[in-house]
Fold:
Amino acid sequence: MSTLAQRYTEVQDRITAACAEANRSREGVSLIVVTKFHPVDLVAQLYELGHRDFGENKDQEAGPKALALEALLGETGRQDPANWHFVGQLQSNKVKSVLRYAHSVHSLDRPSLLAALAKETAKIAQMGEQAGLPAPAALEVFIELNLTEDPDRGGIRADDLLGFAEDVLKVPGIRLAGVMGVASLDQQPERDFAAIQAASIKLQGLAPQASFISAGMSGDFEVALRFGATHLRIGTAITGERQYTA
Structure:
């Protein structure tokens, strides 16, 4: 059975090879290890391997895990913090909690969530100013795309992307990084990744700095890299399957 370190190295090597095949720089690709359903000990092991970017999709799991890792690092005197990326659907009433640990939200999928993020980031900035603290770093966000024909599905449709992006760009304390998408599991992923790349190009016409693409997971990240993915969200290929007990 392969170890965590072996799987981590194998995925890193596959990313490097896929970048070379696509004539891309490896330095332009970020690996986010999705650690959902795994204990903080696994995150700590990855940290010791030199990894810093971790993804979670449920606040009730992510919050305690981020605090536990911070405590572990404090016990060992480590000063280099982990970067937490929230990659799942975010309920508006969880925004305050998520912003206590996450520096990036990959799933900005609706106007009501943008309003909640704007309200909370403004509150954080105001509290810091009153305390005489430096201005906090801007929250990095990705606009999640709806790649289906179902208008009720989560995410922003391509036709609505620029209008929504204009609203995002007006919010102080939020930095629009780019777009996020998930390829369908029941068909070849190329079509969806091409749509995500096209949306990214469209967005850059409005906001050239919003050039990042969060796309690609354990089963399709090499394909995603051919279509410009810059932030890979990889879980089981590195972490292994979660072992549940009865």
Remarks:
- The two ends are 22 Å apart (CA to CA).
- The chain has nine helices and eight strands.
- The chain has a mean pLDDT of 94.
- The longest helix spans residues 111-130.
